[in-house]
Amino acid sequence: xxxxALLGGGSAYAVRSNARIVIVxxxxxxxxxxxxxxxxxxxxxxxxxxxxEEHFYQPGLTLVATGLWxxxxxxxxxxxxxxxxxxxxxxxxxxFDPEAxxxxxxxxxxxxxxxxLVATGLxxxxxxxEGMSPGLIGREGVGCVYDNPDHASRTWQAISAYAAKGGVGxxxxxxxxxxxxxxxxxxxxxxxDQMRRxxxxxxxxxxxxxxxxxxxxQPDVNGFLKENFPERGIAIQWHHRMTGIEPEAKRAxxxxxxxxxxxxxxxxxxxxxxxxPDPLFNSPLANIGAQTPEDRKWLEVDRHTLRxxxxxxxxxxxxxxxxxxxxxxxxVKAHVPVIVQNLVRLLQERECDARFNGYTSCPLITVRGRAxxxxxxxxxxxxxxxxxxxPLQQHWVPWILKDRMLHGAYNAMLRGRI
Length: 418
Ligand SMILES: Cc1cc2nc3c(=O)[nH]c(=O)nc-3n(C[C@H](O)[C@H](O)[C@H](O)COP(=O)(O)OP(=O)(O)OC[C@H]3O[C@@H](n4cnc5c(N)ncnc54)[C@H](O)[C@@H]3O)c2cc1C
Known about the structure:
Elements: E1 15-16, E2 20-24, H1 28-40, E3 41-42, E4 45-49, E5 54-56, H2 61-65, E6 75-77, E7 86-89, E8 93-97, E9 102-105, E10 110-112, E11 115-118, E12 123-124, E13 142-143, H3 149-165, E14 167-171, H4 183-197, E15 204-209, H5 219-231, E16 234-237, E17 241-246, E18 251-255, E19 261-264, E20 267-269, E21 274-275, H6 278-281, H7 293-296, E22 314-316, H8 329-347, E23 360-367, E24 370-376, H9 396-414
Parallel strand pairs: 1-3, 2-4, 2-11, 4-7, 11-22, 13-20, 14-15, 14-20, 15-16
Antiparallel strand pairs: 5-6, 8-9, 9-10, 12-21, 17-18, 18-19, 23-24
Helix pairs in contact: 1-8
The structure holds flavin-adenine dinucleotide (FAD).
Flavin-adenine dinucleotide (FAD) binds at residues 24-30, 49-50, 52, 58-59, 61-62, 92-93, 119-121, 145-147, 179-180, 183, 277, 279, 318-319, 327-330, 332, 361-363.
């Protein structure tokens, strides 16, 4: 285990330790953690577990699904990002056994650890909507921007067919934690903008189904959208939770306070509920004692230290965490240094005092070429990075960030450089 000593003599490492550190998931959070840890902890045995070899730049999926980017642009490879000195086990974790400090992979390997960093991302729960499956995406007017380039490009096929013909477009949003909760809104606004640009806006009726009485968790942005949607003719149906789809009939069913409601559509953007992947969801690491079913869906972590309250040698990073807001790559960028610093503190036998403030961010594209740069914290207080941009003003700078710059910043985050 840890020597507990801070290295002197100009070493770049923060601590020396022979601890076994296991990272589960090689997405945005897992790869970034691996890169920072090899530079922070000398001598540790670091293992990362994930069968997926391709790396998807998911923030680009909205642009793929609306025809603005080619799908190849969002596909990378983890060999380009994982550092030397980290063992990569190409398997999936099938079972978490925190009592035995072990994970078990789907090919039968039992891997022990001293410290576990859980970074599995989340599961898109297609089966929670009766009649829905990923195979429907791109057929029968069905789209879903989540969660890989294939889904996004098939969504673009469905959107372009709809944009050419018009009709009723329905844009849904499941309740509960969603990765990039702005994505359902962005898809609705970009399709509306596309039809307006192409001179076919009058042929289409737009309906956005909100799961509650709001469009966005941050109150100022919510206020902006509540004005902007009606101004551009996007009707809002409040308290509508999609429960089923009949693709042949092109009809969707919603649970509402007044009972089930059916809406016929020509195009529907389906956003299923999301939760921790099955092995995590079914493990003792999930928030099994939580009061609400929503909280029970996620990894239990202290919202500031990101440390598991019942298993103190476990931390969570990224979308799998049961923190109240922030399932974004921008949040990952804020999570990772906090976790690395707290793990280093543990190895030094000191208190975990690095704290995550809930930072999340999203360039909320309203039309092609303009976006709001939305950044806020746990208190839902706006914390803009650029003083010269009004976060409630549709501006070209956040669009340029989204279209040209954030992919490079994301790659730098993967490499642990920012
Ligand atoms: C359409 C869309 C638009 C988005 N737009 C933005 C945006 O504009 N700005 C922004 O900041 N963020 C955006 N995001 C969100 C951002 O991409 C995610 O928040 C981020 O990728 C989360 O990183 P993660 O590491 O937690 O999960 P992921 O990057 O999803 O990685 C999880 C990894 O865990 C692996 N895994 C899962 N289960 C297991 C298991 N049992 N064993 C081993 N490995 C496992 C998976 O294979 C995967 O590689 C968007 C996402 C989507 C889908």
